[in-house]
Amino acid sequence: MLRVIIADDHPIVRVGQKVVIEGSGNYSVVGEANGPDQLLALLATTPCDVIVTDFAMPGGQQADGFSLLGLLHRQYPKVPVILVTMFANVATLRAAFSHGAKAIVAKSASARELPQALKTVMQGKPFVSECLKLQLDLAAVTQATQTPQLSGKEREVVRMLASGLTVSQIAARVNRSISTISKQKSTAMHRLCISTDVDLFAYARENGMVP
Q: 20, 26, 35, 22: which is closest to 1 by C-alpha?
């Protein structure tokens, strides 16, 4: 029986994951964490064979997202990490793999694909949800995965948004119109192949724009 630790800040998600994981008959959930702090404390005392974790679990002393993935990879290099996430932009997906994730499962498909991801990573192979794999394949064809270049003003708008300012507050601070700031935000998101504010904030954090 392979041992699995799951981490998600939503209890109902952990309940669902545990049912799916243990329903296959080959895995046992030996620990649950509600965030990065609890996950690291659990790993220090509870041996496991696989880690299944959410990407965004804010609120603790230890950073989530890419910082957490990198830390897990450094401290537990032999334990594969399966990332279960709502993030769907190409830049975030590729960065997750580069930070040590062995599999990325879309939350919308986790009930169906999580057992398959577990089986695949235990065979030493990477796994990507079908809906996410399509995006990566398309990006490879169009070379959309090359590092996108933002203008100085676009980068500054993204940084301030990720720091918690609204479009109106940014406009007032830099003495530009709200429509101009909105357009710069939209243009930046288009260049980055990002469709949601959450993904935009994740990009900003990944690229050192905010702490």
A: 26
73 and 7 part of one domain: yes
Query: Do 117 and 84 contact (CB within 8 A), yes or no?
Result: no
Token couple for 31: 């620990």
- Neighbour tally for 131: CB within 10 Å: 12
pLDDT in tens, the chain (211 residues): 899 999 999 999 999 999 999 998 899 999 999 999 999 999 999 999 999 999 888 777 888 888 899 899 999 999 999 999 887 677 778 888 888 999 999 888 878 899 999 999 999 999 988 878 776 665 554 444 345 678 889 989 999 998 899 999 999 999 999 999 999 999 888 777 677 787 788 778 777 787 6
Encoded tokens for 211: 């702490």
Nearest to residue 89, comparing CAs of 208, 210, 5, 188? Answer: 188
Token pair 């609890």 is at which residue?
38
Domain end position, chosen among 142, 165, 180: 142
Q: Do 106 and 202 fall within a single domain?
A: no
Query: What element of type H or E holds 29?
Result: strand 27-33
Please, what's the b/e burial string for 173-184 (b: 16 or more CB within 10 A of its CB; e: otherwise)?
eeeeeeeebeeb
